[in-house]
Write a structure and sequence with these properties.
Largest sheet of chain B: 9 strands, mixed
Radius of gyration of chain B: 21 Å
Largest interface: A-B, 19 and 23 residues
Distance between the termini of chain B: 42 Å
Distance between the termini of chain A: 22 Å
Structural class of chain B: alpha/beta
Strand content of chain A: 15-25%
Strand order of the largest sheet of chain A: 2-3-4
Number of strands of chain A: 5
Shape of chain A: globular
Number of strands of chain B: 9
Number of helices of chain B: 16
Oligomer: heterodimer
Structural class of chain A: alpha+beta
Strand order of the largest sheet of chain B: 7-6-5-4-3-2-1-8-9
Amino acid sequence: MTLELSSRPHLAPGCRLGENNQQRILQMPERALRLNGPSLEIVTRCDGKHTVQQIVSELQQIYSKAQPQKVEEDILGYLALLQKERALDFIPASATEA
Amino acid sequence: MNQAPTNPLALIAELTHRCPLHCVYCSNPLELQSRSNELSTETWFRVFQEAANLGVLQADFTGGEPLARTDIVDLVRAARAAGLYVNLITSGLPLEESKLAALVAAGLDHIQLSFQGAREEISNEISGAKSHAQKLRVLEWVKQHRIALTLNFVIHRRNIDQLEEMVALTETSSATRIEFANVQYYGWAFANRENLLPTRQQLDRSMAIIKREQERLEGRIRVEYVVPDYYAKYPKPCMGGWGRKLMLITPSGEALPCHAAQVISGLSFENVKARRLRDIWERSAAFQKFRGEDWMQEPCKTCDRREQDFGGCRCQAFLLAGDATATDPVCSLAPLRPKVDAILAAVNPASVSAGAGLAPPAAELLTRPSWLYRPNPT
């Protein structure tokens, strides 16, 4: 699985952002992930509009003290993990905007 | 004597025991509740709100067949409004497309559709009903209505050799998850165990197939496999530990730490009609009973794995050892493990010692066993 920087991730069916005791969570079939700081910033941008590249750029600005290369690696790793969990689908660049 | 519990994450709402299927491994207790004992719509509404307040994230609607409740759409709407993630575990039998549309509009998050096999004949045999064709219709509707879907196949000796067909069926659907769950031996499955336990050879072959399919489908379909714990080296951390993660409410309102807890003699359970959920979770004797480690015997008491598997399953300990505080006898360290080995030896005739790993299935496997079918309560 390689992530295309120009593709646009969005939450897969059955996955949505929720909240529990002031904790933001990503709810999925049979599991839930706590979202904090960077993970929340990433997941809220998985809206089918932001490309992977845009998510990387925006987080590099938010976390400007971190090494840009490291930020990119972390984001790509996290997106790949969410895809493996079947929490994300990716609209390829060739597709018209959903 | 026990530490304060963390909050439960999931509420298993057994809405009814009524069901059009009669599956020979049903997880319902042998003593089924009738319709007249079922909780009212309003009580369930209160339970959902109390669950959300307690920190529960997800409600699993199950049964029986939850669609047998005529108020199912209202129950979904109320659970969702309370802030819960709503999962419907269904056979799909009493479903119509208009009902599915109403459920989706009410906020249903996910459907788990149960299959008894990939083929009509075995499915109908196991469920004691004509069920397979309707399930295929439901798959099409689910695709149309774009609702998240998991296919659940309960696995046992009679269908474990058909995993590839089940994967192929799943690939024609919109499912993003497959659960292959080997039968766990409680209730009806315990009664039918000798005809359900797969052989070691079947199990080994299934593991290889699952591994291959997990790799092939990565990123498209999550493939999950629950092995039969009789073949495991260590027990499962049943329900994530007694009274640690889950709460089950029976059709009549009793709050249990797991599906099978009522088999343990000497335990009494509180009813949501009389007590608040938080109260039951935090203070009731049944939920406190096997929290922490004070109740444990050796070898669990001093075992390094006790915080991983919590001594295994209390119901299984009761069923196999006659003592709910015993080490789960499926554990290789358990004093009663030989009892489980004897059960396995009975379904693995000679093949293990003779090394005849490629022997054809015994003739007995090809003939239809005399099943004990679960009835439908009125």
